[in-house]
Specification:
heterotrimer, A alpha/beta (366), B mainly alpha (367), C mainly alpha (288), A: 366 residues, alpha/beta, four-stranded antiparallel sheet, 23% strand, B: 367 residues, mainly alpha, MetI-like fold, 0% strand, globular
Chain lengths: 366, 367, 288
């Protein structure tokens, strides 16, 4: 049922060229929360690149910091005591790159909605219950300097784009179904024609058919508007259907990133292997579902060295004390322990199975 | 810009369902809104009947039979102490106070008088004037006092409360919140005493008692109105301070809860300006629940007002109630209590009927 | 006890409130000893025991004397226990009453029973009850502390009933209660084993609210000078001060002293209530 579709064949050449340009670069990002029980290093030394007009997926089990990471991009984290290090470089076309982490709230506000739009996780409660949906589409545009009259005129078009009738604008959120609410939110997200849409579990809570429609809508929007989408989901079939590239997140870090097909067929990181194997029909060859041994560690106390080492079937001595770097292994086919892996370009991994990741010997590309 | 968005079969399906519901509604004799209104009015009439009946039972259950005691006192005052006149006097008064016949007859008689004629019988404080006349004289003053205090304290409390909740981390918000936490838990009467001492005795800025300057002829003159406002100032300020504080705390808690809602995160992710979020999202969601709380607070504010009126010797029904209680003027007491209960119940009815017009979440389906 | 320490540690409001209330209760309990120690072996209510009327505060009479020449500190100390007793007694009675009604309405009432009981509770909360209390007190002769508490609790039970009903309603839907119901435990067993232990904090909140309600009503009654004869509480002292026009005499402390003590009482209970709510209603916790 979950088919992997590659978009590269349909995409125009110009777009493909643009796609190599980085739009969002997350570099060594730390988001630590100061709690009564100590610092929770929810996102810790995280690295990630999203290119123009691509759909990038972040996968990982709950509690790995996915949501915090995307909230950090928009700087909408609610937790009061937090410590942030690192950079989030955003490079919209025709403009110099800007480090979002260095912006004040007032400066950041201009980027939210206009350049980076958000599709939230709890979309069932993300619309203001006492405001008509049309007005909620309009106020976002007004906040970015569009006149109210122009904004209102644009509402029917936006609703059509996401597959809704124009009269939905006159309804209140409680009069809409879950799928319709999600579409309204997408309409709000595209209203300013942003360069990047950040979607946090956009289809969780929706039934499978509505889920499929929403994903199709996102795909269509990417093709027509040239927008890049960063989508977070714990649901691998969602990624397989939708994304171009995927980043696998574990314990506050991206441990593997690369094009979706190789990442799913031949995952490099042992955690990613376990993750792919735990989903029927994606891993392909395996007969039996395999889980990952052990429990997710706590952000209050990540393990030393590689954070996955105490759950890893391939654990080595070095893993217990040296943190691996996210690096590009030499492309080509190689034997990794008992597995044969064909590594393509632009496929990064943070694991000592690949000597490039071990700090002394491996070079870091990012 | 034609788009090839996948067909929305599911949404259409949902749309049909909604339409079917609408059709069903049309087939029914009354619209849901009408049914809600009728049910709410029905509940109102039942509670009204219940409370008036309860007040009848209440007055008959009180040990010592207050009405007979009152009749006896009237006879004493009249000086008709000889046995022959006493009997006829007694009959006369019993008839006048609705005491003849058995309990059921008395009840019917009472309901008839109260419901149809708003007549609570003669008063004792100024016999033979009807008790209702005394109440009518005091009621405008009380309504002015309670109404002004209620409106000012609600607006002040909700607006400041929302701001304090919005800026909950700042020092000034914290200070205001702590002060109002303290204020909201003391009787308005206490505040009134302090104000009275400072602003009427130490610095005689405001008058200490009564509702207007006795030297000014009551009427629609500027001098009279000014005098009325001056005399209202202290009691109103005292009540406002306490009740605004309690609205402030309630609204602040509500706003802090709203600030944690998903729709607020999304609002800031849309890049809305703070002003847009505060007015369109926070305020709008906070003031609606506080409207329904407005009617609920009426009882408490009237309770407090009785004491405040007494302190300022204000000629409202609160002071009248205390006087009639001291004089054991049962009819006047009952008239006041009944009127106050009817007023609060009616205010609640009005709010309940109007609220769905403002709040889209409360549908008339009566949930 | 463990819960107490937990709340004590977490909530500054609870600490302050509890300390205030504890001081007042100690003063109330040991008032006889304190009076003897401060004023000697006299009845503080007896006229002329203070050696002069309307004396200003001095070393002998820390808060001066009243119009009958009674020492104000002595009056305050003998008035305080009455206020405390009535508030506590009425609070307990109304909480018990409110708990029964709240449980019946919330757990066993069915739709109709719940609607009727809830409508009555709501009506009592909506209507001004002080006038009714005034009338009742005017006719009931020779009310003692216990009878007065009973009268007041008739009007303050809805505070407790409302808190308890809403909790019962939410507890009733918890999985473990569902489980007990499926295993055919009787309603009483479920209430006793599953619901009641979880209700204790809310009974505490109900008690705090009902005591405040009762204390407000009592003070309202006595401040208006409508206290049953023989009951002299702090409100009576306020009424006296008002009757004698002490503000125009400049003797504000006769007003302020009883009001201050009552304010301590109201605030103490209110802060305890707040602390309990913050602790057991963590929806607001951590956000403020």
């Amino acid at each position: 049922m979950a088919q992997v579709t590659t978009r590269t064949q349909v995409a125009p050449v110009a777009q493909q060229e643009l796609r190599q340009e980085p739009l969002l670069q997350i570099e060594n990002l730390d988001i630590h929360f100061v709690t009564q029980r100590g610092a929770a290093r929810v996102v810790d030394q995280c690295n990630l690149t999203v290119h123009h007009n691509e759909i990038f997926g972040i996968a990982g089990e709950s509690g790995c910091g996915k949501t915090t990471l995307v909230e950090a991009i928009l700087q909408i984290i609610r937790f009061p005591n937090r410590v942030t290090h690192g950079r989030v470089l955003f490079s919209p076309p025709g403009k110099p790159p800007v480090d979002l982490m260095s912006l004040s709230q007032a400066e950041m506000r201009r980027y939210r909605g206009e350049h980076i739009a958000y599709i939230p996780q709890g979309s069932q409660n993300s619309l203001n219950p006492v405001q008509r949906t049309g007005d909620q589409i309009v106020d976002g545009m007004v906040a970015h300097g569009i006149s109210e009259r122009q904004a209102k005129a644009k509402v029917p078009e936006l609703l059509t784009k996401v597959g809704l009738e124009g009269k939905v604008a006159h309804l209140y959120p409680h009069e809409l179904s879950g799928g319709m609410k999600q579409r309204v939110i997408i309409a709000i997200a595209i209203s300013m024609e942003p360069e990047l849409i950040v979607a946090d579990e956009p289809t969780t809570a929706l039934d499978v058919n509505v889920q499929r429609l929403i994903l199709e809508t996102l795909k269509t929007l990417r093709e027509e508007m040239g927008v890049a989408i960063l989508i977070v989901s714990h649901d691998l079939p969602v990624h397989a259907q939708l994304v171009d590239r995927i980043g696998v997140m574990y314990a506050g870090q991206i441990v593997e990133s690369g094009a979706i097909r190789p990442a799913v067929k031949e995952p490099l990181h042992p955690y990613a292997m376990g993750l792919m194997a735990s989903v029927p029909s994606i891993g392909g060859s395996r007969e039996r579902l395999e889980g990952i041994q052990g429990a997710t560690p706590s952000p209050l106390n990540w393990p030393d060295g590689c954070r996955f080492h105490n759950r890893c079937p391939y654990v080595m001595d070095v893993c217990t004390h040296v943190p691996p770097l996210l690096a590009q292994p030499e492309p080509g086919t190689r034997q990794v322990d008992d597995l044969t892996r064909t590594i393509g370009p632009d496929h990064l991994v943070a694991c000592h199975l690949y000597p490039e990741s071990t700090p002394q010997t491996g070079g870091t590309h990012e | 810009m034609a788009t090839q968005i996948p067909s929305t079969t599911f949404e259409e399906f949902e749309g049909q369902e909604v339409q079917q519901e609408r059709l069903l509604e049309k087939k029914m004799l009354l619209s849901p809104a009408m049914r809600y209104v009728l049910r709410r009015i029905g509940l109102y009439l039942i509670t009204l009947w219940g409370s008036i009946t309860a007040s009848f039972i209440f007055i008959r259950l009180i040990p010592g039979d207050p009405i007979r005691a009152m009749v006896a006192q009237m006879q004493l005052q009249g000086g008709y102490n000889t046995i022959s006149t006493s009997q006829s006097m007694s009959d006369f008064y019993e008839k006048q106070f609705g005491l003849n016949g058995n309990l059921l007859q008395q009840y019917l008689h009472y309901m008839n008088r109260v419901l149809l004629h708003l007549d609570f019988g003669p008063s004792l404080l100024s016999y033979p004037n009807p008790a209702m006349d005394l109440v009518k004289r005091g009621l405008p003053w009380t309504m002015a006092l309670v109404g002004t205090s209620l409106v000012i304290s609600w607006i002040l409390g909700v607006v400041v409360g929302a701001l304090v909740g919005w800026a909950r981390k700042s020092r000034w918000a914290d200070t205001i919140n702590n002060i109002s936490l303290g204020l909201s838990h003391i009787p308005a009467y206490f505040v009134a005493v302090v104000l009275l001492f400072i602003f009427a005795y130490n610095f005689p800025i405001f008058p200490a008692n009564s509702a207007y300057d006795a030297s000014i002829k009551p009427g629609w003159s500027f001098a009279f109105l000014w005098s009325v406002i001056q005399h209202m100032a202290l009691p109103v300020i005292a009540t406002v301070l306490v009740f605004a504080a309690s609205w402030l705390n309630g609204t602040r808690a509500l706003v802090i809860q709203i600030l944690g809602e998903d729709y607020l995160t999304f609002a800031s992710a849309k890049g809305l300006k703070n002003r847009q979020i505060l007015l369109g999202y926070v305020m709008k969601n906070a003031w609606l629940p506080q409207i329904s709380a407005l009617a609920l607070s009426l009882g408490a504010i009237i309770n407090g007002n009785v004491l405040v009126e007494q302190l300022f010797r204000y000629p409202g029904v609160g002071q009248l109630l205390v006087m009639s209680t001291q004089q054991k003027d049962v009819n006047t007491m009952m008239a006041i209590v009944t009127i106050l209960i009817v007023m609060t119940l009616t205010a609640n009815l009005i709010v309940d009927l109007l609220l769905p017009l403002f709040d889209p979440r409360i549908s008339y389906s009566g949930k | 006890m463990k819960a107490f320490i937990g709340i004590w540690k977490m909530s500054m409001k609870f600490r302050i409130g509890f300390t205030m209330l504890a001081i007042l209760i100690l003063l109330g309990v040991f008032h006889r000893l304190l009076i003897r120690w401060l004023l000697g072996d006299i009845d503080p209510l007896e006229i002329g025991t203070g050696g002069g009327i309307f004396l200003d505060p001095s070393r002998d009479h820390l808060l001066g004397t009243d119009r009958y020449g009674r020492d104000m500190v002595g009056l305050l100390l003998s008035g305080l226990p009455i206020t405390l007793e009535v508030a506590a007694l009425a609070g307990v009675i109304s909480t018990a009453l409110g708990a029964i009604i709240g449980f019946v309405a919330g757990y066993n009432g069915g739709r109709l029973g719940d609607t009727i009981l809830f409508t009555i509770t709501d009506m009592f909360l909506v209507i001004p009850t002080l006038p009714l209390i005034l009338i009742l007190a005017a006719y009931a002769k020779g009310l003692g502390v216990i009878e007065l508490s009973l009268v007041l609790s008739v009007f303050s039970w809805p505070f407790a009933a409302r808190v308890i009903r809403s909790q019962v309603l939410s507890l009733r839907e918890r999985p473990y209660v569902e489980l007990s119901r499926m295993t055919n435990l009787s309603a009483w067993e479920i209430i006793w084993q599953d619901i009641f232990p979880n209700m204790l904090p809310y009974l505490g909140i109900g008690l705090a609210q009902a005591s405040i309600g009762a204390a407000f009503a009592l003070v309202g009654l006595t401040v208006l000078g409508l206290a049953p004869s023989g009951i002299l509480d702090l409100g009576t002292l306020i009424n006296n001060a008002n009757q004698w026009g002490v503000l125009s005499l400049g003797k504000w402390w006769l007003f302020v002293a009883p009001m201050g003590i009552l304010t301590l009482l109201f605030m103490g209970v209110a802060l305890i209530n707040q602390g309990l709510e913050d602790f057991y209603n963590p929806r607001l916790r951590g956000m403020s």
